[in-house]
Amino acid sequence: MKIHKYDTVIVGAGGAGMRAAIEATKRSRTAVLTKLYPTRSHTGAAQGGMAAALANVEEDNWEWHTFDTVKGGDYLVDQDAAEILAKEAIDAVLDLEKMGLPFNRTPDGTIDQRRFGGHTRSHGEAPVRRACYAADRTGHMILQTLYQNCVKEGVEFFNEFYVLDQLIVEEDGVRKSAGVVAYELATGEIHVFQAKSVVYASGGTGKFFKVTSNAHTLTGDGQAACYRRGLPLEDMEFFQFHPTGIWRMGILLTEGARGEGGILRNKDGERFMEKYAPVMKDLASRDVVSRSIYTEIREGRGCGPEGDHVFLDLTHLPPEQLDAKLPDITEFARTYLGIEPYTDPIPIQPTAHYAMGGIPTNVKGEVLADNTTVVPGLYAAGEVACVSVHGANRLGTNSLLDINVFGKRAGIAAAEYSATADYVELPENPAELVASQVERLRESTGPERVADIRKELQETMDANVMVFRTEQTIKSAVEKIAELRDRYLRVSIQDKGKRFNTDLLEAIELGNLLDLAEVMAVSALARKESRGGHYREDFPNRDDVNFMRHTMAYREVTGEGPSAKDSVRLDYKPVVTTRYQPMERKY
Amino acid sequence: MATPVMDKAQATATADYITATFRIRRFNPEESDAVIWEDFQITIDPKERVLDALHKIKWDTDGTLTFRRSCAHGICGSDAMRINGRNRLACKTLIKDINPDKPITVEPIKGLTVLKDLVVDMEPFFQAFRDVMPFLVTEGNEPTRERLQSAEDRERFDDTTKCILCAACTSSCPVFWNDGQYFGPAAIVNAHRFIFDSRDEAGEQRLEILNDKDGVWRCRTTFNCTDACPRGIEVTKAIQEVKRALITRRF
Hints:
The complex is a heterodimer of chains A (587) and B (251).
Chain A: E1 2-11, H1 15-27, E2 30-34, E3 50-51, H2 62-72, H3 79-99, E4 113-121, E5 126-132, H4 138-153, E6 156-159, E7 161-171, E8 174-184, E9 190-200, H5 221-228, E10 233-234, E11 239-246, H6 256-259, E12 263-265, H7 273-276, H8 286-298, E13 310-313, H9 319-325, H10 327-337, E14 346-355, E15 359-360, E16 366-368, E17 374-380, E18 385-386, H11 398-420, H12 432-443, H13 450-464, H14 471-488, H15 502-526, H16 544-547, E19 549-558, E20 565-574
Parallel strand pairs in A: 1-2, 1-9, 2-6, 9-17, 15-18
Antiparallel strand pairs in A: 3-5, 4-5, 7-8, 8-9, 10-19, 11-14, 12-13, 13-14, 16-17, 19-20
Helix pairs in contact in A: 1-4, 1-11, 2-3, 3-11, 5-15, 13-14, 13-15, 14-15
Chain B: H1 7-13, E1 18-26, E2 36-44, H2 50-60, E3 80-83, E4 86-89, E5 104-107, E6 114-116, E7 119-120, H3 123-131, H4 151-156, H5 174-178, H6 185-195, H7 203-210, H8 224-228, H9 235-248
């Protein structure tokens, strides 16, 4: 075991982590721990754009953006946070441009902007051009630009260091962060990082679904580390299903394709979104479009011999426009489907895309231990966090924005805290939990296989807690997850070595996915209403009287030793409402 | 009723499955210093990716098989490897496109130290990247709003902004195989990205770095890098443009 000491430790090197690192490194001695290499993070897969009311191409302002964000989130958004997001968006985009990001340009040489789902002028009147973009690789350019600036600032990275535990120590009745414990993939060695402040920026948890746009590595590691140490997870039942994943594969095809004029069609060639969203049509918010697609499929208007998908039609757009604005996604269609998007429509289906919920924070990025109490020294930003600017459904282009605005805020806040705070003394045996977890998996001779349990988990999640949910389907997911968690105790791995043991890593990741799937299903079961990405067929309406509140899920442990049992305890937190009272949501 | 799932469609598709042999170069110094080639026979849909085949082997047969991967659709750059003797991303290569009638060989990219199976030491590669000042350098006060750039000026370096740092180009270069000191194509591509950016003011410094004995002049114009690039970047052309800029000092 090695012990390291830093002022600030950042967990994760995607957009939020690197944005935080650029700020924290200027202000404090900072280490960034990532289980990948920085440029491998899934920020790079984001395509369409980053929202900011620059008003470069038409009238726009941050107040309209705030409203769209609140409405898009089906009023579960904390409006103070949404206002910060929309206001600071403008500087966030300009910061990136000054760091070198090659945005597409208008004829005047300013940053070009395009339409995106749910972004409107004058509170829903018509679509507005608000998404700043770099072709259809905006996320790639953000990730590269942030990494380039990390090189410039001399940010210290620990690559392929996998954080497995969050150290929480109680001092004078206050739970504080003391640091993290990480596993070095190359050597199998365990490292303790003592730090005055820790920032989680470790991304989402989409790999508990089968059809997903998420990377294999998005396994909710940060959420799970905090949850296991008694910290709550907020709004985990809210997961976004992006309307246009490549059929069966789930690979993302940007909403920017519809922003550029692409149209969704059913087997009769009908532009079916006109029925469901008369004003915004194909650019309604993602939850609305995904439900509409599955309604078409269920009512027998799906395409293909199995009627199990619909088409994204780009054939009416000029090839030059596709080449200039959507080069990557048209290439995905050619590579993975053998389809030429100039002439043929692309088969698509909704794909599990984004966790609206996560580690609860306030607008400074400080992690909350309950509805109000801050955990000193602990921060989170990006998809791992829930601040909550996305509420029940995130708008497209607001995630690239979120990582930049709240990544920067968390990086500054953490470094400023490090400048004044003392180290919290490490617990007596800080690596104990991780060491025993690693040892148990290495030595287990149990009959269960990681791949089998993961496959069954993904199948039950797709079947039971996806776009449409009922009490019955969620209950069957809860039961299945309990069975899988029990079987996980008897899982064994084949690679017993220390060097680059990815077999072991996948087993640990599966443990995280199982814990978080349970939280998600239990949270979803209790929310007897439909709101944003959470749609209950048995409760098809939004219920503001009983459910205009955030879910807070805690891990409860009863008993001790081998007979100890854990379960999810639910509590609720009020929504911050400032300007906008809940209204019926129409697009 | 729950969300419709694709199981039925997938079940009908199994009729198209083929049996393919993957011949994988194995190396684990924790066990032995020997490098061996191991054959795995699997039944798989030929429309799936080589990465899917590697996962199938790892998940169903041999958990010790070790490789890097993340996004699985050609954007994160983790899984560059040598497949049938050519550098490719495993997640962007469909099995049907690489003659699955014969054994498909999979080995680590060349010129970087192999650490285990298909995993190589990426540190020298990233060091070369860091050495070319891969970030925008500007002088004077920052403008209040964005810097202006015409669409034409933006287009000038568009191609080299696509780089995902997968190392497929650098590790396909015979000069790099023979001399690891050479910056390699990827670092030059990333220097190009800034040298030809109208907003940047450190082009001269980057050119001097690349004028070094281990710089662009080592390039023998074999076009391996252009063939290897999974992003379709015209790598050799970019290197030629840097060479020309060194001679003319115009960029």
